[in-house]
Design a protein that fits this description.
The structure holds two protein chains of two kinds.
Chain A: H1 3-42, H2 45-79, H3 81-115, H4 122-151, E1 156-159, E2 162-165, H5 168-172, H6 175-205, H7 211-246, H8 248-255, E3 266-272, E4 282-287, H9 290-296, H10 306-317, H11 341-368, H12 378-404, E5 409-411, E6 423-424, H13 425-428, H14 434-465
Antiparallel strand pairs in A: 1-2, 3-4, 5-6
Helix pairs in contact in A: 1-2, 1-4, 1-6, 1-12, 1-14, 2-3, 2-7, 2-14, 3-4, 4-6, 6-7, 6-11, 6-12, 7-8, 7-11, 8-11, 11-12
Chain B: H1 2-28, H2 30-33, H3 37-47, H4 51-68, H5 70-79, H6 81-100, H7 107-137, H8 157-181, H9 184-201, H10 203-216, H11 219-240, H12 244-266, E1 269-271, E2 281-282, H13 283-286, H14 290-317
Antiparallel strand pairs in B: 1-2
Helix pairs in contact in B: 1-4, 1-7, 1-8, 1-12, 4-5, 4-14, 6-7, 7-8, 8-9, 8-10, 8-12, 10-11, 10-12, 11-12
Chain lengths: ~500, ~325
């Protein structure tokens, strides 16, 4: 493998891994903030138990999200230095803003929240968890603004072969991020919702103590899940329309649509080899005109197929890579404008499928435990735990689809303006040696693998222990919010 | 404007070295100053609420470099690739270790994470020093900003000296911090250790500054280097007199003057080329457009004071000394 492939694998592995923690942190932190608010307002210990239990799982997860996030801040410069030079004037700004506006708030107020139980006045302590969770959302916005700019560059001009920022408001108000942001946030809530429903239902099935806590969690999670799914559908539809305008090849790749269709049918699933851009050997089960509806809100719009898009792309962006030793084997070779079709086609379907299964499982569980019932069979335990994984998978496949679907570009050309601001992935990598990138790829993958085992082990342990694991005995809650004595330095200790 | 952002980045590094300097030091000294399990928990609890916030200074320093000087960001990070990987793994390890070591009540579990904390803190402190001195002394980069030569080009005696200098500073700074933040035996031990090792541990920093000044010093950076020496001496003297707070503040002045001397000597370059001075990346050449720098200036103007206020408040909330008597019994599943 050459540097390009190694660098892409590394970015893919580290980013997909990082994004397992991120949505859970975003979604769960807001739900925990909601639980703590309920406790502060009602004084009901059920809500305190919920805050402590789900809060502990949030912390275990957040630690991993933080450390894997550090790598992200560095790896653009390390493995994608040519990209960094090309886009730095515009791409670095949202990253720096994220650090200055969001990371500082997150890390500081989380520290205050963990160590501030009983030490800070109740309401100040509550404000800390809200500050933390709102900062995670701000953080998501800046990162998505940066990513959306790669999907659809705006607010820039080409000066001396580099992108130069002309309007930060155009970048932060890019219609691509306005659709991607709600989609991602609802995706995060879907993750947190299934986490709540699945784990709480498992406890009910085990006849753990604290039934009311688990029932309240299932109910809370189900409703969040339903709202999240509705939000995902609406924002996803918005994104599809933008994709149709902005990245027609990605749209065609999502459907493995080889020939232009008018009206275009939506493929539900396909049998055969979707890898070939000529669609030989593929049988697809389709819904007539649904793709036209998705793309343009009517039943007639023509959606271009891969066969017709390739010559258009070749005419606009060249048929061959330039002759440049930095491009290695690709130097002077024809440019393949077709993304990896099995990945985009199935990634798109798995994203939607897992999302739908997640909300379906949540509703099913809520219905199965209605009126104090709890199913006895082993299948219910498996259903509960299995449902936790589904939105994680949906998120991952969605991102794999959207990032693989923009290949061979790292910065996708904007079809309606911004001349010249686009970049092939092949041109974006550093001049590192394959040995360097291979070393980091192996090292990071191994360490991440070990850490995944540790995190799963810890989460399992804390999930099993239930409420007793986080609320020892019956600590009297006398409503006194001041430190007990002047000497009471730590209310929490490692 | 470019010069202003060069100063901002120097300030961000200063914030990082001052703040994470002591939490590196605490990690490095964990087995030396924490002789029992309870004492080790005391040490970790002195930085527990703040280490993550301290680390954000690094992320913002790097992010701001990306935004304000993309060519610097790209050339430096891609050239020092392998040492950076090790540095990142060290940061990952110690971060996870802080959060996870107390989550299971088992001596073996804690011992394993303690090892990660110690190894991670040493490696990370050395790594920061290597990275910073690599940018000060320069790298073999060509006209495009790409490294010429081996993946280990960044490892030379100057950068190794820089690595040891930062680690030595962190060691002393951490010990002074612990003498300020703990009580009883740990406090005494930390103070004694700081006094014993400071003359050796701070020496590399002074040698580093001397080397830099001899190569590219100006009058005022010489002045800053002398301030470093005087502040370090002052910190020592204050610590002898048991004025830990003042000693800690003077350690802050030490690193502030050191950063000023290093970045001052580097200016107007940001990353010199050791192959040909014409290929050196300069403040003007590596900077983003004036518009981007203006945008970033507005963000920094509103963001930075807020950060200082609420981070300062955190230190105020957790201002009390920590001792073994404060450590509650372990309660974990």
């Amino acid at each position: 493998m050459d540097v390009l492939d190694l660098a892409r694998w590394q970015f893919g592995i580290t980013t997909v891994y990082h994004f397992l923690m991120v949505p859970l942190t975003i979604g769960l932190s807001l739900l925990v903030a909601g639980m703590q608010t309920a406790w502060v307002r009602t004084g009901d210990r059920k809500y305190l138990a919920m805050t402590k239990f789900w809060g502990k799982l949030l912390l275990i997860n957040f630690a991993m999200g933080v450390v894997t996030g550090i790598v992200q801040e560095f790896q653009f410069g390390m493995t994608w230095s040519a990209y960094s030079r090309f886009v730095g004037d515009v791409f670095g700004a949202p990253l720096a803003m994220e650090g200055l506006v969001a990371f500082f708030v997150e890390s500081t107020f989380l520290g205050l929240w963990i160590f501030g139980w009983d030490r800070l006045p109740k309401k100040v302590h509550l404000a800390c968890v809200w500050a933390f969770s709102l900062a995670t959302i701000a953080s998501a916005y800046f990162i998505l603004a940066a990513n959306s700019w790669m999907q659809h560059p705006v607010g820039v001009e080409l000066v001396d072969g580099r992108a130069r920022l002309t309007s930060i408001w155009a970048v932060l108000g890019n219609n691509t991020v306005l659709a991607a942001f709600p989609h991602t946030i609802f995706g995060a809530f879907a993750v947190a919702a299934s986490f709540l429903v699945g784990i709480a239902a498992w406890h009910l099935w085990r006849h753990s103590d604290d039934g009311p806590v688990w029932r309240a969690s299932v109910k809370f999670g189900t409703w969040v899940g339903v709202v999240a799914f509705a939000g995902l559908a609406i924002s996803g539809d918005q994104q599809a329309k933008l994709m149709f305008e902005q990245q027609p090849m990605k749209m065609a790749a999502a459907e493995a649509l080889c020939h232009t269709e008018s009206p275009a049918a939506f493929s539900v699933f396909a049998i055969g080899d979707v890898a070939r851009p000529d669609c030989e050997n593929v049988k697809s089960v389709t819904v007539p005109a649904l793709l036209s509806l998705l793309a343009h809100n009517d039943f007639t719009t023509e959606v271009k197929g891969i066969e017709d898009l390739v010559p258009e792309y070749q005419a606009k962006y060249g048929a061959n890579y330039p002759v440049d030793p930095r491009l290695g084997e690709l130097s002077g070779m024809p440019i393949d404008y077709v993304p990896n079709l099995p990945v985009t086609y199935w990634g798109f379907r798995l994203m939607i499928g897992f999302g739908a299964v997640a909300v379906g499982a949540g509703l099913l569980i809520q219905w199965l435990i209605r009126g104090g019932r709890v199913p006895r069979g082993r299948w219910f335990g498996w259903l509960a735990l299995g449902s936790v994984a589904t939105p994680f998978l949906g998120n991952s496949f969605g991102w794999i689809f959207t990032e693989m679907g923009r290949q061979p570009f790292v910065v996708v050309p904007n079809p309606s303006g911004v001349d010249g601001v686009w970049m092939f992935t092949a041109r974006a990598v550093s001049s590192s040696t394959p040995g360097e990138v291979l070393t980091s790829l192996v090292a990071l993958t191994l360490v991440y693998g070990v850490l995944a085992c540790v995190e799963v082990f810890l989460i399992r342990r804390y999930v099993r222990a239930g409420i007793a694991g986080v609320l020892p005995g019956d600590v009297p809650d006398d409503g006194d919010t001041r430190p007990k004595t002047d000497d009471d330095v730590l209310s929490f200790a490692y | 404007m470019e010069t202003f952002w060069f100063c901002v980045i120097a300030l961000l590094w200063l914030g990082y070295l001052f703040l994470e300097g002591f939490d590196f030091g605490v990690g490095m000294l964990l087995p030396v100053l924490g002789r029992s399990g309870a004492e080790r928990r005391v040490l970790i609890n002195t930085i527990g609420p703040v280490w993550d916030g301290n680390e954000v200074w690094l992320l913002v320093a790097v992010g701001a470099t990306f935004a304000a000087f993309p060519a610097w960001y790209a050339a430096l990070l891609s050239s020092v690739y392998l040492p950076l990987v090790l540095f990142l793994l060290a940061l990952i390890g110690r971060g996870v270790a802080f959060e996870y070591r107390g989550k299971v009540d088992s001596a073996r579990w804690r011992r394993a994470w303690d090892t990660v904390i110690v190894a991670g803190s040493w490696t990370a402190a050395l790594g920061v020093g290597l990275l910073l001195s690599a940018t000060v002394f320069g790298l073999p980069i060509d006209a495009a900003g790409d490294r010429v030569g081996s993946p280990f080009a960044a490892i030379r005696w100057e950068t190794l000296l820089g690595a040891v200098a930062v680690a030595g500073y962190a060691l002393v700074h951490g010990a002074v911090f612990l003498s300020l933040k703990t009580e009883g035996e740990v406090r005494e031990r930390a103070r004694a250790l700081a006094l014993r090792v400071a003359p050796f541990a701070l020496l590399p920093l002074l040698v580093l500054l001397l080397t830099v000044q001899l190569r590219s010093g100006s009058t005022w950076t010489w002045g800053a280097s002398i301030v470093v020496a005087l502040a370090a001496l002052g910190a020592y003297g204050r610590l002898v007199l048991r004025r830990e707070g003042q000693a800690f503040a003077l350690m802050g002045l030490t690193v502030a003057a050191a950063v000023a001397a290093l970045f001052g000597a580097l200016y107007p370059d940001v990353l010199p080329s050791t192959l040909d001075p014409a290929w050196s990346l300069t403040v003007a050449g590596a900077a983003s457009s004036p518009y981007t720098l203006t945008v970033m200036t507005w963000v920094a103007a509103f963001g930075t004071p807020a950060v200082l206020v609420y981070q300062g408040w955190t230190y105020w909330v957790f201002r009390k000394r920590v001792g073994t008597r404060h450590i509650p019994r372990v309660h974990v599943p």
